[in-house]
Amino acid sequence: MTATTRRPAGEPGTLLTTAPSADCTADSAGGLSFDVPLPGVAERWDAALLLRLRNSDPEESVRLPLVPLSGGTGGTVLRATLPSTVPLAEGRWDAYLVLGEEEPRRLLPGCNDLRSLVDRVPRTDRTWLGVRIPYATKYGNLSVRSWLRWPHAEVGEIWPEDGGVTVRGRLYGAPLASGARLEARPRRAAGPVVTGPVDPAEGPGFTARLEYGDLAREREAGDDWELWLRPGADAEPVRVARILDDIADKQKIVRYPARPAGGGKEGDGGLLARPYYTGANDLSVRLERASAAA
Fold this sequence. Notes:
- By secondary structure, this protein is mainly β.
- The chain has 2 domains: 21-148, Immunoglobulin-like; 152-293, Immunoglobulin-like, CATH 2.60.40.
- It is 3% helix and 47% strand.
- It is elongated and about 65 Å long.
- The two termini are 34 Å apart.
- The model is unreliable at 1-17 (pLDDT under 50).
């Protein structure tokens, strides 16, 4: 569990000494509860927790009623619940406290209990998978990172080696069939699709292999390649990602080693390849020079 006790310098708005905070608890089904302590505030029927989808146009929001959890002379703790059965569009949702007609006030993060999110296994009888992870923004505010996917290819293990990378994971919501393959697609432009073999394992498990040399030979299409899993020859591809844990943004936390790519065109000596997670926790591979990697 983590706790925020100080607002970083430079954040506009209410000072930390008067700003409300919320303790978040996740359940294994994907639901979230928000507990908001309000010292000195009596029970309110017009209190709500507001989630606003960042950069959405028109503005998309979800309003959750806040109900008393406990009370006493010191004030009231109000709880809002976001059930796992309520879809939440993919993106970053900023959390606010609303009291009656007052202007919404940005919430600060309190203590997060996200243990139930680690190694979460989705039910196979569902039609969509919702993942929500609360986190502190760079300004020290409370937000929720949301994913809405199905089928979903979850990364388990990544083994970077000289010349290629092996990815082990689990596919939920679709069966692996004949013609299943791993696909690498250039991130910023239309271009060739580089493929690798997929070996099905027990249950929904799979092992896939991507040769770096195949990417190096197609470098004119770009240096960043998204990884997709196509479950069968006629199936729609599924983005490969790691979202079934408690880390909202792996981009700056999880780092894999760069390995020699080989197979490049003349003048590509020293070309390396490195797997990495995007800001959405999707798995990609970047080609880079040895000097840049250093």
